[in-house]
Specification:
The chain is α+β, with helices and mostly antiparallel strands. It is built from 12 helices and 11 strands. The strands form 3 sheets. Strands 6-8-9-11-10 form a 5-stranded mixed β-sheet. Strands 1-4-3-2 form a 4-stranded antiparallel β-sheet, with helices on one face. It has a two-stranded antiparallel sheet with strand order 5-7. The radius of gyration is 48 Å and the shape is rod-shaped.
């Protein structure tokens, strides 16, 4: 499966979409980090506020009633337990989070806030120290950790005393920020507990919404802009292909699109007009050359009849015929691709049979070994000539020739096999060029002018196909050359 599109429109849109995806991913990471930073800052500020001010004034009064009492062995005052009960009665439905400020009541303890196995969050502790220093409080020790609520001793006791709190779903799995400060060496620890709020889904949702909006606006606008560029380019491509096939400049493409594309189309139209003018001039010139050369050749053909020596007369007649045939081949090669009429639907099987019969009537060892009924639009005269050239070339060098017409998937193949010596692999491409011969002489009976294969290739390309030459498989005892005219079936 091809994931990378071929068109300019598809490649540009995909490249922009990928770049935008990478940019949005980086933006999402930065926004997430910023959100986490704000979340941590809010937690530190909440912990600092709890450590500076106890918002539960009723608990303060209860705690003042217990002043002077000794701390229990767990490190909490007895007044703290009373304060907990008072707080629960004051807010019986508070469950996990207290009513005010999102904090639990600050406590005082002889022992530090860290439980065995817990580590101090040094970076966050430094931020808390800086925040407290801004308020004029400079503790000698600061400890701060994140703890599962169900593992916190204070909340465990609260859950034991308050069934409604214990029944709160998921309270034990929530995270709790526990912060403690010691204001003097050996003094008590002031400990605050702040529930860690869940991450807001609005952060991710906002990023997704932002990405969708950017994609819709940017990719949509870019699509419209690229369509204004690629649509005229596609029309220019179709026009170029059509002109290559027909050399007809009577219907030029109207300039469209941005100024650069419009100027390109105008330049292409001018180039088409110039090419057609040059081709017309070439046809006129070739016609004049053909007329000027064939007329004296015809006169010579008449004059040699007065030569009494029959052998000399035959040689001169053969030379004149050779010149005439070479001239016809050159003019035909120059006119290939300038067909004066459109291709017509033809029965290729009948065309191949007719050409084979011509050689059979002349006593040549040419055999039709396979043929299918295939109808295809072709220039009959030109295709017939190409097939004749291939068969004549095979007869000249090999003697025995087998002709086939078959279909291979989406390709129509006119195949000519011979049993001759073939062509050296390094010379196959050169044999398709003009004036290249398998035999060094210029005698048409042996070497020819070297235009037969070139004409056949030009005719095949005129029909959108190709001429393929290959030596037959020696391993299967099939020696010789295989020449194929391959035409697209559709």
């Amino acid at each position: 499966m091809r994931l990378w599109p071929r068109s300019l429109l598809g490649q540009t849109l995909l490249a922009v979409a990928l770049a935008l995806l990478v940019a949005q991913a980086i933006s999402a990471v930065l926004l997430y980090q910023a959100a986490e930073n704000r979340r941590e800052t809010a937690l530190v500020n909440a912990a600092a506020f709890s450590l500076l001010v106890d918002p539960d004034t009723r608990a303060n009064r209860i705690r003042r009633g217990f002043e002077g009492r000794r701390f229990d062995r767990t490190g909490d005052r007895a007044g703290d337990r009373a304060g907990d009960r008072a707080g629960d009665r004051a807010d019986p439905g508070s469950s996990f989070r207290p009513r005010r400020g999102g904090r639990f009541r600050t406590r005082t303890s002889d022992s530090p806030p860290l439980l065995p196995g817990e580590t101090n969050l040094e970076d966050t502790a430094e931020r808390l120290t800086d925040t407290l220093a801004g308020q004029g409080i400079r503790p000698v020790a600061v400890q701060l950790t994140l703890r599962r609520s169900g593992s916190d001793p204070v909340l465990q006791r609260r859950a034991q005393r308050n069934p409604r709190f214990a029944a709160r779903p998921g309270w034990a799995d929530r995270q709790l920020l526990v912060a403690g400060i010691q204001l003097e060496e050996g003094g008590p620890w002031r400990i605050a507990r702040v529930p860690v709020p869940e991450r807001e889904p609005r952060v991710v949702g906002g990023i997704v919404a932002q990405t969708l909006v950017i994609y819709a606006v940017l990719v949509g606008v870019l699509y419209l802009l690229l369509r204004r560029i690629t649509h005229p380019l596609a029309a220019l491509t179709r026009r170029t292909s059509e002109f290559t096939r027909t050399q007809d400049a009577s219907s030029p493409l109207a300039p469209a699109g941005p100024q650069d594309i419009s100027a390109l189309i105008a330049a292409h139209n001018a180039m088409e007009a110039r090419i057609v003018a040059m081709l017309d001039e070439k046809d006129v010139m070739l016609g004049a050359i053909g007329h000027d050369l064939k007329t004296p050749l015809a006169a010579l053909r008449v004059r040699i009849e007065s030569v009494e020596d029959e052998t000399q007369r035959a040689r001169m007649a053969a030379s004149i015929e050779d010149l005439t045939q070479s001239l016809d081949d050159i003019l035909s090669l120059a006119r290939i691709g300038r067909a004066g009429q459109q291709a017509e639907q033809a029965q290729l099987g009948a065309l191949v049979e007719a050409v084979v019969e011509e050689f059979e009537d002349m006593g040549q060892p040419v055999t039709l070994v396979a043929s299918e009924r295939i109808a295809h639009p072709v220039h009959v005269t030109w295709l017939r000539r190409a097939l004749r050239n291939l068969i004549a070339n095979a007869v000249r060098y090999a003697g025995t020739v087998e002709v086939s017409l078959l279909r291979d998937g989406g390709t129509i193949i006119l195949r000519v096999d011979d049993s001759g010596p073939g062509i050296p692999a390094g010379r196959i491409d050169a044999m398709l060029e003009p004036f290249q011969r398998g035999e060094a002489s210029r005698n048409r009976a042996t070497g020819g002018a070297g235009l037969g294969l070139t004409l056949a290739r030009a005719i095949a390309e005129q029909h959108g196909g190709e001429l393929v030459l290959a030596n037959r498989d020696v391993a299967s005892n099939e020696t010789g050359l295989r020449a194929e005219i391959r035409l697209p079936a559709a």
